[in-house]
## 1
Amino acid sequence: MTQTLRSNGGQLSRMRRYRRLAIGAVLAGVAGNLALRTLDFPVAAEVVYIGGFLAFLAIWLGTDVTLFDEREQAIEQRASAATLSITAVIVVFGAATARLFPPLLGTTVPTAVHYALYAFIVQFVLFAGVYGWLRYRP
Amino acid sequence: MKNHVRARRDDVGLSQADLAEAVGVTRQTINAIERERYDPSIELAFKLAAFFDCRIEDLFDPELDAS
């Protein structure tokens, strides 16, 4: 039992360390971006911003460390599904409401609302594509 | 799912953090399993059973949950 405790203990502390590193890279990228934009270095700001996310991806995908344990991944999946469901309700009722505005109220909804609805629809198209790939891949 | 993880852990005198370290998950995950708010994967169930040197059926009892 003690041997198991030691061997897996290192794995968990490594996960914590890499997770702090990954999240820290993103936060550093965002903080660096804000600071450099304030100092009027727009290009450098975006390089630092993207660099933070690339560092996150490198840690997440480029190492063999699992950043989040299985329960955290399950929570993430449930949250994603719930978000998608909420978005579906917004798209269905939002689109119908937007179409009814002109005939019933004699006015149109702001263009930004239309763009937001289109963005949600694109998200569902993307979801369908990813779902299909996962469902039918060999 | 009903389980005896808490009882087994108490028997060997380990904290949730110790058990979490041993099977490679967070302490919160062990807590959620013990409170029956999260059902572990087969892989984690096997790890827990191996750690306590028992069978999975000795640790988890889905029939109790159904009743």
## 2
Amino acid sequence: MTTPLDEATVVAALDAVQKDLDAAARILESAGAAVAREQGQLDNVADAARALPGRGRDVRASLGLIHESLERAKLGALNAGLEAARVGEPLGRLVMQLAGDQRDLVMRALDALEAHAALVTEAEEERERWLGSVAAAREAGTAAVEEISALARRFQEATLSMERLELGLVPVLGTDPRTARLLIGVAEQAERLAVTMSELGDDPDSKERLDRALSPVLNALRRGRESG
Amino acid sequence: MSARAGILVRAGGELGFVPADMARQIVPLPTVSPVASAPLQMAVVGGRIVPVVALGSPTGALLVCEIDGEAVGFTGLEVDRVGTYESVDGGVLVGDRTVRDLELSTALRSLEQALEPRIGESS
């Protein structure tokens, strides 16, 4: 045999569970939205990374042109030196020295160019690794979205189960949970009424305060009667 | 003590010396065409056809020399630098090491000898 208090306790517990379910569903929804945003950002990163090979090819093409020009400049310096060597002392020696300096500068530029080409290769390899990581992160994001969707479905099912549970409780408790909720409201208002009455004393505005305190109780009782 | 002007070239990892009165110019490697049934190749340099002797794997440059009044191209050489060096017997002194003269005339003559029997056969 259950008392109205038991029924009210059960209904309050059901309400608490329902509230928790709603809160969890909202958290899941925002988590899903956050993952979707991350996925979008990953897509942007992947698109940018895919555009890099074209730029890498352009850089390589210009490096090739610079290399060719420097090789020509080196040959030019060597030929100038050769001509100067044939001219002989003293003018030839001076020109030969200048041509040698020129050739040394070109050689330094060629070395720097080689270092640049190595850097480009390194950057391209880094990009490949980067693309791999982005793809892996994207896969993980997709899996997370699927899991969140599955969880959301579970929560929907749990909400439906809660509704079914409430209906199933009617014959067990002998009271509709909605009525029990109204009873809880009445009990709370009655408690407030008792407090107000104890405070009334000689207060001249007591009637007005009593009316204000009684009004929600009467309303709650009216609703209880209407819902049967 | 006499000095010789010329270029230092690397052939198969070895440094050699080519005197300036023999080396005419260094040009970017042009298209080199093989000559049928002959160890010699041909290339067009400055509008003239010159025989080309391969002294190693082709590099990006062709060294054109004048041997017995004729222009001859050499591939497989990497030109290191041009300069005036102290003359020693059979070469020059670069720093404290002797760099031998590159025997380009000998290389060309050995090719000519290889060609002679073939010329004889065809006539």
## 3
Amino acid sequence: MNGPHDLGGRMGFGPIAPEKDEPVFHEDWERRAMALTSGMDSTGEWTLDMSRHANERIPPAQYLSMSYYEIWITGLVDLITTAGLVTNEELASGQMMASAKKVAGKLMAAELASVLAKGDPVTRPATRPPRYTPGDKVRTRNMHPQGHTRLPLYLRGHVGEITRLHGTHIFPDSNAHGRGEDPRPLYTVTFSAGEVWGTARHPQDTISADLWEPYLEPA
Amino acid sequence: MNGPQDLGGQMGFGPVAPEKDEPIFHAPWEKKALALTLAMGATREWNIDISRHARESLPPAQYLGSSYYEIWIAGLIKLMLAKGLVTEAEVSSGKMAVPAKKVAGKLLASNVTTALAKGGPSSRPDTVPRYKMGDKVRTRNMHPVTHTRLPRYLRGHQGEIVRLHGTHVFPDSNAHGKGEAPQALYTVRFAARDVWGEARHPKDAVSADLWESYLEPA
């Protein structure tokens, strides 16, 4: 979706102010927000792509006013409510009122380090040969789906070159909507900055993005 | 600029909820906001394009969290501060603290009806247009950090000239005090499918009034 998260090329936010000795967490609740989100992800009630879509669906004025972990918590509330893991009354009271729903997975404190180290790989066995090889010229599709996509607005309808094949990966546009993993080849595509923005500070400036095969057409 | 005002194609705002018997103003202060904005425009310290840019350059979270007249007032305060017509301290206290600056124009209550009826025409003596009806053009893929009336969703697309409106003040120049630089203004029609990649109906079209320098021959 062309949501508030899709910030490439958007202006008016003012300069970035890097923070000296930036702490990992700015407040104690942020630590908890991260732990809660990781813990709840282990229930298996949603996928990584569903949780990203929950975040990007936050109304734009609210999204752009929020800090990083405020967005995480707001997205998590959306997910646990939709999955029936919590009711609005429970959220308002902070007290458990309905009996706990049985979930497929549970993150135990003792397993935390190994689970985090393992991560959650999105590579899958190839189901078909990749359509493109490095050096191929491709054009990104001019698409504007209402659903989740990893093709940013500023890279649509532009010609680039395949510079790397990453193998076959879960297709987020499908996985974010419970339509299965539908694994597809994933490529790095390199665009000249002049092609993307109309002008470039330096003629050799480029932009590279990791894009799934369905985003591309032969150019 | 690719600012928060450029909403074409942006999603996630929820449905539009039309208001039954919508009043012209939702609160008495809105009436005042409109009057103040028009009256301050009469000082000729800025032009309409400068005031549009003052609004679109508000921080995106603030802009999208503001109502229509909240945006007007926030833009007006920026302009008055920039032109030295008011100080930060005066805005917060609501009291005049420094002597009034002399301005070129003043809107008197007795002139309001005439001034509003007259409007602020942006047409200028004709120049020779580069394009004619039926010409195929392509909009430029441009991303100025300054004011433009070419929305982002219409950049880099092919369309057809369907009307010539004569010569008009060029907002991209006029918004930055670089003069009116008048140029030809056209209505350009695009197939919805070219703009959005797909269309509900093959004949759906999007038309926009675009200045000549936004266009290249296609």
